[in-house]
Design goal:
Shape: globular
Largest sheet: 5 strands, parallel
Distance between the termini: 96 Å
Order of helices and strands: HEHEHHEEHEH
Length: 216
């Protein structure tokens, strides 16, 4: 007859292992949102601001709270910014990004602006190359409905940087995602003229500085 091993007795007085925080680790905190004068956060219980227009594709659930940036980016230095005198023009911030990642960088900037309390209707996003996916999707329904959303000015609007009908807003975000150097030299000063208080440019720093310097 096989022997049945005795079950180990568990003593309630023996404390189990306790989780201890890893030494030197701190919880990641969101990066500061670029722009003059951060706005106070809305009181607890107040309705959250609406999200920016969704990208084309299957319907997605409502946009929840935006997660904090990845921990590995928390300690990284902020992108270099070139600031102009706000008495003569808007504040200018440059976010380095390759042409292929300029739209993603612009989307992240919009998320941070919305999280900081900026109203969606205060933000205009321009592209120098291919249209932003949202703009391309909305234009597929016709220009009338597309520009009607622009005129309503109650949400983030995405347009081609050369679109003269796109009027100015307090914050303008430009994604330098294509186009020639001549195009950048033409649209960046125009984007600065459209920005009321803040212009954020996402793209190759050397190319952007060259374009802005040519019009200084």
């Amino acid at each position: 007859m096989p022997l049945i091993p005795e079950e180990p007795q568990i003593h309630e007085s023996v404390p189990g292992p306790r989780a201890t925080p890893a030494a030197g680790r701190t919880a990641p905190t969101p990066r500061p949102v670029p722009g003059p004068g951060p706005r106070p956060a809305p009181p607890r219980g107040a309705p959250a601001s609406s999200a920016r227009p969704g990208k084309p594709g299957p319907a997605a659930p409502p946009r929840g709270p935006v997660a904090a940036p990845p921990a590995q980016r928390t300690g990284s230095p902020q992108p270099p910014a070139v600031t102009t005198d706000t008495a003569t023009g808007p504040q200018l911030q440059l976010i380095p990004a390759p042409a292929g990642g300029a739209v993603d960088a612009a989307d992240e900037a919009v998320d941070l602006l919305l999280d900081s309390g900026r109203a969606p209707g205060e933000i205009l996003v321009l592209t120098t190359g291919e249209n932003h996916p949202w703009a391309a999707h909305e234009l597929s329904f016709g220009e009338a409905s597309y520009w009607a959303q622009h005129d309503a000015a109650d949400d983030v609007f995405y347009a081609d940087a050369s679109a003269e009908r796109a009027s100015g807003r307090p914050v303008v975000v430009v994604a330098v995602n294509g186009g020639t150097d001549e195009t950048a030299a033409r649209v960046l000063p125009a984007a600065m003229a459209r920005a009321g208080t803040l212009l954020i440019v996402c793209g190759d720093p050397q190319r952007i500085n060259t374009a802005l310097g040519a019009n200084a």
